[in-house]
Design a protein that fits this description.
GO terms for molecular function: inositol 2-dehydrogenase (NAD+) activity; nucleotide binding. This is Myo-inositol 2-dehydrogenase/D-chiro-inositol 1-dehydrogenase. InterPro entries: Gfo/Idh/MocA-like_OxRdtase_N, GFO_IDH_MocA-like_dom, NAD(P)-bd_dom_sf. Pfam families: GFO_IDH_MocA, GFO_IDH_MocA_C3. By secondary structure, the chain is an alpha/beta fold. It folds into 2 domains: 111 residues, NAD(P)-binding Rossmann-like Domain (Rossmann fold, 3-Layer(aba) Sandwich); 180 residues, 2-Layer Sandwich (Dihydrodipicolinate Reductase, domain 2), CATH 3.30.360. It contains 13 helices and 13 strands. The protein has a 7-stranded mixed β-sheet. Strand 1, helix 1 and strand 2 form a beta-alpha-beta unit. The protein is globular, with a radius of gyration of 20 Å. The relative contact order is 0.15.
Length: 334
Protein backbone atom coordinates (compact mmCIF):
# COMPACT_ATOMS: atom_id res chain seq x y z
CA UNK A 1 0.00 0.00 0.00
CA UNK A 2 0.92 3.66 -0.39
CA UNK A 3 1.06 5.71 2.84
CA UNK A 4 1.25 9.48 3.17
CA UNK A 5 3.06 11.20 6.06
CA UNK A 6 2.19 14.75 7.06
CA UNK A 7 4.93 16.21 9.24
CA UNK A 8 8.54 15.08 9.33
CA UNK A 9 9.81 16.27 12.66
CA UNK A 10 11.31 13.83 15.16
CA UNK A 11 8.32 11.51 15.39
CA UNK A 12 7.32 11.89 11.74
CA UNK A 13 10.79 10.92 10.55
CA UNK A 14 10.76 7.99 12.98
CA UNK A 15 7.40 6.84 11.56
CA UNK A 16 8.76 7.17 8.02
CA UNK A 17 11.65 4.88 8.93
CA UNK A 18 9.31 2.36 10.56
CA UNK A 19 6.82 2.37 7.68
CA UNK A 20 9.56 1.99 5.08
CA UNK A 21 10.50 -1.31 6.74
CA UNK A 22 7.00 -2.83 6.74
CA UNK A 23 6.23 -5.46 4.11
CA UNK A 24 2.73 -4.07 3.58
CA UNK A 25 4.04 -0.62 2.60
CA UNK A 26 5.23 -0.26 -0.99
CA UNK A 27 5.76 3.51 -1.14
CA UNK A 28 5.64 6.70 0.92
CA UNK A 29 4.44 10.19 0.04
CA UNK A 30 5.57 12.96 2.39
CA UNK A 31 5.00 16.64 3.01
CA UNK A 32 6.32 19.13 5.54
CA UNK A 33 6.33 22.96 5.71
CA UNK A 34 10.12 22.72 5.96
CA UNK A 35 11.37 21.61 2.56
CA UNK A 36 14.66 20.30 3.95
CA UNK A 37 12.84 17.82 6.20
CA UNK A 38 10.82 16.49 3.27
CA UNK A 39 13.92 16.30 1.08
CA UNK A 40 15.82 14.38 3.77
CA UNK A 41 12.99 11.83 4.04
CA UNK A 42 12.88 11.46 0.28
CA UNK A 43 16.58 10.79 0.09
CA UNK A 44 16.62 8.38 3.02
CA UNK A 45 13.48 6.37 2.33
CA UNK A 46 12.86 6.88 -1.38
CA UNK A 47 9.70 8.82 -0.58
CA UNK A 48 7.82 11.02 -3.03
CA UNK A 49 7.65 14.65 -1.88
CA UNK A 50 4.62 16.87 -2.42
CA UNK A 51 4.25 20.51 -1.41
CA UNK A 52 0.98 20.49 0.55
CA UNK A 53 -1.48 18.30 2.46
CA UNK A 54 -3.93 18.75 -0.40
CA UNK A 55 -1.41 17.41 -2.89
CA UNK A 56 -0.68 14.47 -0.62
CA UNK A 57 -4.36 13.55 -0.31
CA UNK A 58 -4.62 13.67 -4.09
CA UNK A 59 -1.53 11.48 -4.61
CA UNK A 60 -3.32 8.15 -4.51
CA UNK A 61 -2.48 7.27 -0.90
CA UNK A 62 -4.28 4.42 0.87
CA UNK A 63 -3.79 5.88 4.35
CA UNK A 64 -2.24 8.92 6.01
CA UNK A 65 -0.08 9.37 9.12
CA UNK A 66 -0.51 12.76 10.80
CA UNK A 67 2.66 13.73 12.65
CA UNK A 68 2.34 17.49 12.23
CA UNK A 69 2.09 20.04 15.04
CA UNK A 70 -0.88 19.56 17.37
CA UNK A 71 -2.67 22.68 16.09
CA UNK A 72 -2.91 21.04 12.66
CA UNK A 73 -4.38 17.73 13.86
CA UNK A 74 -8.10 18.57 13.63
CA UNK A 75 -7.96 19.95 10.10
CA UNK A 76 -5.79 17.11 8.82
CA UNK A 77 -7.95 14.41 10.43
CA UNK A 78 -11.06 15.95 8.89
CA UNK A 79 -9.37 16.36 5.50
CA UNK A 80 -8.43 12.68 5.48
CA UNK A 81 -11.94 11.62 6.46
CA UNK A 82 -13.54 13.85 3.82
CA UNK A 83 -11.24 12.27 1.24
CA UNK A 84 -12.28 8.81 2.43
CA UNK A 85 -8.72 7.94 3.47
CA UNK A 86 -7.99 6.07 6.76
CA UNK A 87 -6.13 8.28 9.26
CA UNK A 88 -3.47 7.59 11.86
CA UNK A 89 -2.88 10.67 14.04
CA UNK A 90 -0.43 11.15 16.86
CA UNK A 91 -2.02 12.20 20.14
CA UNK A 92 -3.69 14.49 21.03
CA UNK A 93 -6.70 14.76 18.74
CA UNK A 94 -6.62 18.53 19.25
CA UNK A 95 -5.02 21.15 21.46
CA UNK A 96 -8.15 21.55 23.60
CA UNK A 97 -10.85 19.14 24.65
CA UNK A 98 -13.57 21.33 23.10
CA UNK A 99 -11.79 21.11 19.74
CA UNK A 100 -11.41 17.36 20.18
CA UNK A 101 -15.12 16.97 20.87
CA UNK A 102 -15.89 18.95 17.71
CA UNK A 103 -13.65 16.61 15.70
CA UNK A 104 -15.48 13.62 17.14
CA UNK A 105 -18.85 15.12 16.23
CA UNK A 106 -17.64 15.87 12.70
CA UNK A 107 -16.48 12.30 11.99
CA UNK A 108 -19.34 10.42 13.64
CA UNK A 109 -21.31 8.49 11.06
CA UNK A 110 -18.43 8.57 8.57
CA UNK A 111 -17.25 5.15 7.45
CA UNK A 112 -13.56 6.09 7.58
CA UNK A 113 -11.38 4.56 10.34
CA UNK A 114 -9.25 6.81 12.55
CA UNK A 115 -6.48 5.53 14.84
CA UNK A 116 -4.92 7.76 17.50
CA UNK A 117 -1.31 7.09 18.47
CA UNK A 118 -1.06 5.61 21.96
CA UNK A 119 1.85 3.24 21.45
CA UNK A 120 1.84 1.56 24.88
CA UNK A 121 -1.21 -0.45 23.76
CA UNK A 122 1.21 -2.29 21.45
CA UNK A 123 4.06 -2.92 23.90
CA UNK A 124 4.32 -6.65 24.67
CA UNK A 125 4.45 -6.13 28.43
CA UNK A 126 1.29 -4.05 28.51
CA UNK A 127 -0.44 -6.45 26.12
CA UNK A 128 0.40 -9.32 28.47
CA UNK A 129 -0.79 -7.31 31.48
CA UNK A 130 -4.15 -6.65 29.85
CA UNK A 131 -4.51 -10.34 29.03
CA UNK A 132 -3.77 -11.25 32.65
CA UNK A 133 -6.47 -8.86 33.89
CA UNK A 134 -8.99 -10.10 31.33
CA UNK A 135 -8.33 -13.75 32.18
CA UNK A 136 -9.13 -13.15 35.84
CA UNK A 137 -5.86 -14.69 36.99
CA UNK A 138 -5.10 -11.70 39.25
CA UNK A 139 -8.47 -11.85 40.96
CA UNK A 140 -10.28 -8.63 41.83
CA UNK A 141 -7.91 -5.67 41.37
CA UNK A 142 -7.26 -3.26 44.22
CA UNK A 143 -4.19 -1.21 43.19
CA UNK A 144 -2.51 -0.10 39.97
CA UNK A 145 0.72 1.92 39.84
CA UNK A 146 1.81 3.59 36.61
CA UNK A 147 5.06 5.50 36.14
CA UNK A 148 6.51 7.70 33.40
CA UNK A 149 9.78 9.47 34.22
CA UNK A 150 11.64 11.38 31.52
CA UNK A 151 15.43 11.63 31.73
CA UNK A 152 15.36 15.38 31.02
CA UNK A 153 12.70 17.97 30.16
CA UNK A 154 11.97 18.95 26.56
CA UNK A 155 12.92 22.50 25.43
CA UNK A 156 11.31 25.53 27.05
CA UNK A 157 9.32 26.36 23.90
CA UNK A 158 7.82 22.87 23.89
CA UNK A 159 6.87 23.06 27.57
CA UNK A 160 5.20 26.44 27.06
CA UNK A 161 2.98 25.02 24.30
CA UNK A 162 2.44 21.54 25.77
CA UNK A 163 -0.65 22.27 27.85
CA UNK A 164 1.07 20.94 30.95
CA UNK A 165 2.57 17.68 32.14
CA UNK A 166 -0.77 15.91 32.64
CA UNK A 167 -1.91 16.61 29.07
CA UNK A 168 1.48 15.96 27.50
CA UNK A 169 3.07 13.15 29.54
CA UNK A 170 0.71 11.62 32.11
CA UNK A 171 -1.98 11.13 29.47
CA UNK A 172 -0.07 8.03 28.32
CA UNK A 173 -0.44 6.58 31.82
CA UNK A 174 -4.13 7.49 31.87
CA UNK A 175 -4.76 5.76 28.55
CA UNK A 176 -2.89 2.61 29.45
CA UNK A 177 -4.61 2.35 32.85
CA UNK A 178 -8.00 2.43 31.08
CA UNK A 179 -6.85 -0.07 28.44
CA UNK A 180 -5.20 -2.58 30.78
CA UNK A 181 -7.90 -2.56 33.45
CA UNK A 182 -10.91 -2.10 31.17
CA UNK A 183 -12.29 0.40 33.71
CA UNK A 184 -13.11 4.11 33.65
CA UNK A 185 -11.74 6.80 35.98
CA UNK A 186 -14.37 8.59 38.06
CA UNK A 187 -12.33 10.96 40.28
CA UNK A 188 -8.78 12.27 40.62
CA UNK A 189 -6.61 14.09 43.12
CA UNK A 190 -3.31 15.51 41.85
CA UNK A 191 -0.28 17.25 43.32
CA UNK A 192 2.84 18.69 41.74
CA UNK A 193 6.17 20.27 42.51
CA UNK A 194 8.96 22.28 40.92
CA UNK A 195 12.47 21.36 41.96
CA UNK A 196 14.11 21.29 38.53
CA UNK A 197 14.23 23.50 35.45
CA UNK A 198 13.07 27.05 36.18
CA UNK A 199 11.43 27.43 32.77
CA UNK A 200 8.86 24.77 33.66
CA UNK A 201 7.71 26.72 36.71
CA UNK A 202 7.75 29.94 34.70
CA UNK A 203 5.37 28.30 32.21
CA UNK A 204 2.94 27.58 35.04
CA UNK A 205 3.63 23.85 34.93
CA UNK A 206 4.99 21.28 37.38
CA UNK A 207 8.07 19.16 36.69
CA UNK A 208 7.10 16.32 39.05
CA UNK A 209 3.56 15.14 39.75
CA UNK A 210 1.55 12.48 41.51
CA UNK A 211 -2.09 11.61 40.94
CA UNK A 212 -4.53 9.29 42.68
CA UNK A 213 -7.23 7.99 40.33
CA UNK A 214 -10.36 6.23 41.56
CA UNK A 215 -11.69 3.74 39.02
CA UNK A 216 -15.36 2.95 38.60
CA UNK A 217 -15.03 -0.41 40.37
CA UNK A 218 -13.18 1.04 43.37
CA UNK A 219 -9.65 0.16 42.23
CA UNK A 220 -7.08 2.82 43.17
CA UNK A 221 -4.50 3.86 40.56
CA UNK A 222 -1.38 5.81 41.49
CA UNK A 223 0.35 7.74 38.70
CA UNK A 224 3.86 9.16 39.08
CA UNK A 225 5.52 11.46 36.53
CA UNK A 226 8.63 13.61 36.31
CA UNK A 227 10.61 15.57 33.75
CA UNK A 228 13.82 14.84 35.68
CA UNK A 229 15.06 11.25 36.02
CA UNK A 230 18.82 11.27 35.60
CA UNK A 231 19.14 7.50 35.35
CA UNK A 232 16.99 7.23 32.20
CA UNK A 233 13.53 6.85 30.70
CA UNK A 234 11.44 4.90 33.18
CA UNK A 235 8.03 3.50 32.20
CA UNK A 236 6.50 0.83 34.44
CA UNK A 237 3.20 -0.51 35.68
CA UNK A 238 2.24 -2.68 38.64
CA UNK A 239 -1.15 -4.37 38.86
CA UNK A 240 -2.15 -5.88 42.20
CA UNK A 241 -5.12 -8.18 42.68
CA UNK A 242 -6.38 -10.36 45.50
CA UNK A 243 -4.94 -13.46 43.78
CA UNK A 244 -1.69 -12.28 42.17
CA UNK A 245 0.43 -9.24 41.29
CA UNK A 246 2.29 -8.49 38.05
CA UNK A 247 4.58 -5.80 36.68
CA UNK A 248 5.42 -4.28 33.30
CA UNK A 249 8.90 -2.88 32.73
CA UNK A 250 10.89 -4.97 35.22
CA UNK A 251 13.66 -5.94 32.82
CA UNK A 252 17.38 -5.42 32.54
CA UNK A 253 17.15 -1.98 30.90
CA UNK A 254 15.05 -0.61 33.77
CA UNK A 255 16.64 2.72 34.81
CA UNK A 256 16.73 1.98 38.51
CA UNK A 257 19.63 0.90 40.75
CA UNK A 258 19.15 -1.62 43.54
CA UNK A 259 21.10 -1.09 46.74
CA UNK A 260 20.21 -4.49 48.19
CA UNK A 261 23.36 -6.55 49.01
CA UNK A 262 24.19 -9.17 46.38
CA UNK A 263 21.51 -7.99 43.94
CA UNK A 264 22.71 -7.38 40.37
CA UNK A 265 19.31 -6.60 38.81
CA UNK A 266 18.90 -4.70 36.59
CA UNK A 267 22.05 -5.61 34.73
CA UNK A 268 21.60 -3.84 31.38
CA UNK A 269 22.17 -0.34 30.03
CA UNK A 270 19.18 1.78 31.11
CA UNK A 271 16.63 3.05 28.59
CA UNK A 272 17.37 6.70 27.89
CA UNK A 273 14.73 7.69 25.32
CA UNK A 274 11.11 6.85 24.53
CA UNK A 275 12.00 5.66 21.03
CA UNK A 276 14.47 3.20 22.55
CA UNK A 277 11.94 1.93 25.12
CA UNK A 278 9.10 1.59 22.60
CA UNK A 279 10.75 0.84 19.24
CA UNK A 280 8.91 -2.46 18.81
CA UNK A 281 5.66 -0.98 20.10
CA UNK A 282 5.78 1.73 17.44
CA UNK A 283 6.40 -0.90 14.78
CA UNK A 284 3.44 -2.96 16.03
CA UNK A 285 1.28 0.17 16.18
CA UNK A 286 1.95 1.10 12.55
CA UNK A 287 1.60 -2.52 11.47
CA UNK A 288 -1.85 -2.39 13.08
CA UNK A 289 -2.60 0.76 11.09
CA UNK A 290 -1.78 -1.03 7.82
CA UNK A 291 -4.33 -3.65 8.87
CA UNK A 292 -6.85 -0.89 9.57
CA UNK A 293 -6.15 0.51 6.10
CA UNK A 294 -6.59 -2.96 4.60
CA UNK A 295 -9.92 -3.31 6.37
CA UNK A 296 -8.89 -6.42 8.30
CA UNK A 297 -9.24 -4.91 11.79
CA UNK A 298 -11.05 -2.00 13.46
CA UNK A 299 -9.17 0.97 14.91
CA UNK A 300 -7.33 -0.19 18.05
CA UNK A 301 -7.43 3.33 19.55
CA UNK A 302 -10.34 5.53 18.55
CA UNK A 303 -10.95 9.25 18.96
CA UNK A 304 -13.34 8.33 21.78
CA UNK A 305 -10.51 6.48 23.56
CA UNK A 306 -8.16 9.44 23.18
CA UNK A 307 -10.74 11.89 24.50
CA UNK A 308 -11.37 9.76 27.60
CA UNK A 309 -7.67 9.94 28.48
CA UNK A 310 -7.85 13.67 27.77
CA UNK A 311 -10.67 14.19 30.27
CA UNK A 312 -8.57 12.55 32.98
CA UNK A 313 -5.72 14.94 32.13
CA UNK A 314 -8.12 17.89 32.36
CA UNK A 315 -9.34 16.74 35.77
CA UNK A 316 -5.79 16.31 37.07
CA UNK A 317 -4.78 19.75 35.79
CA UNK A 318 -7.76 21.35 37.59
CA UNK A 319 -7.06 19.33 40.74
CA UNK A 320 -3.43 20.46 40.80
CA UNK A 321 -4.35 24.12 40.40
CA UNK A 322 -7.23 24.10 42.91
CA UNK A 323 -5.82 21.60 45.44
CA UNK A 324 -8.95 19.43 45.57
CA UNK A 325 -10.46 16.20 44.26
CA UNK A 326 -12.12 16.56 40.84
CA UNK A 327 -14.59 14.20 39.18
CA UNK A 328 -14.42 13.42 35.48
CA UNK A 329 -18.06 14.49 35.12
CA UNK A 330 -17.16 17.97 36.44
CA UNK A 331 -14.65 18.67 33.67
CA UNK A 332 -16.73 16.93 31.02
CA UNK A 333 -19.63 19.29 31.76
CA UNK A 334 -17.55 22.46 32.14
Amino acid sequence: MRIGILGLGRIGAFHAETLSGLDAVESLVVTDPFADAAKAAAERFGAEVVDSPEALLAAGVDGIVVAAATDAHPALILAGVEAGIPVFCEKPVAKTMSEGVEVLKAVQGKDVPIQIGYNRRFDTGFVNARAAVQSGELGTLHTVRSTTLDPAPPPAAYIAASGGIFRDCSVHDFDIIRWVTGREVTEVYAVGGNRGADFIKEAGDADTTGAILTLDDGTIAVVSNSRHNARGYDVRMEIHGFTDSIAVGLEDKLPLRSVEPGVTFPAGTPHDFFMDRFTEAYRAELTAFTEVVAGTRPSPCTIEDALEAGWIAEACTLSLHEHRPVTIEEVRQA
